[in-house]
Amino acid sequence: MMLTDKRRLLWAGLVVAGVAVMSGCSASTAPDDASTTEGGAPAASTAPVPGATETTPSADASARTATALTAIDTAEKAVSDGQVFDLELDTDDGVTLWEVKVAGRGGTQFDLELSEDGTTVQSKHEDTTPDDDIAKLATSTLTVRDALAAAAEHADGDAKVTAAEIDRERDGTITWEVTLGGDDGITVVMDAADGRVIRSGPDAG
Question: Are strands 95-103 and 186-191 parallel, antiparallel or unpaired?
Answer without folding.
Answer: unpaired
